[in-house]
Amino acid sequence: MPAGTWTLRPADADDRQAIRRLWAESFGPPDGEADRWLDLTIGDAPARCWVATAPAADVVGFLFAAEVDRRFLQSYLRDHPIVDSLPTRIALIHMLGVTSEWQSAGVATALVRQSLKWASERVSVMLAALWRRDDHVDSSGLSPKLGFTHVSTVEGFYHDRIYCPDCGTSCSCPAAIHVKSLTDEQPS
């Protein structure tokens, strides 16, 4: 872990290139997806992106979250039965990435906590679909620590990604679906 500290702030238009780079390093080429989510979060949609920046103002982590309705969630989770058990509007953590140098430094924890604070002011449940990849640092340990419950695993969840850092070509990795009730969440 590098020396120094990092700070959190909302992403802005100047962060696009850094987020695209980190997205590609973590998950493969964003193929326009990062820009679509940035457009949502920088505008006035019920979506946000936060970045963690190092002392030199370098982006070392990011998280996209959005308030979504059932129709969006049904499409996002490909009509998974879990959707029927959730409220009609929830918060969704769409993507979380941290540079390898800053992993295990609390960056991901702080980003998720920030998204929980934001979401708790809007909805009663937050959902995260976590990319399950062998031999990689992922958020599977972070989710239970922050009160998320694993409810399902969806095989081939990322099949529409044209490149996967693990699979080499189109992705066959599963996603672990985690949910958290926000009714007891206390903003900090």
TrEMBL record:
Gene Ontology CC terms, in alphabetical order? ribosome
Keyword Ribosomal protein included in the entry's annotation: yes
Alphabetical keyword list: Ribonucleoprotein, Ribosomal protein
Occurrences of domain N-acetyltransferase (ranges): 6-174
One Pfam match, by short name?
Acetyltransf_1
Q: What InterPro entries does the database record attribute to this sequence?
A: Acyl_CoA_acyltransferase (IPR016181), GNAT_dom (IPR000182)
Give the signal peptide, or none.
Answer: none
Q: Which GO terms describe its molecular function?
A: acyltransferase activity, transferring groups other than amino-acyl groups
Keyword Membrane listed? The answer is no
Question: What is the name of this protein?
Answer: Ribosomal protein S18 acetylase RimI
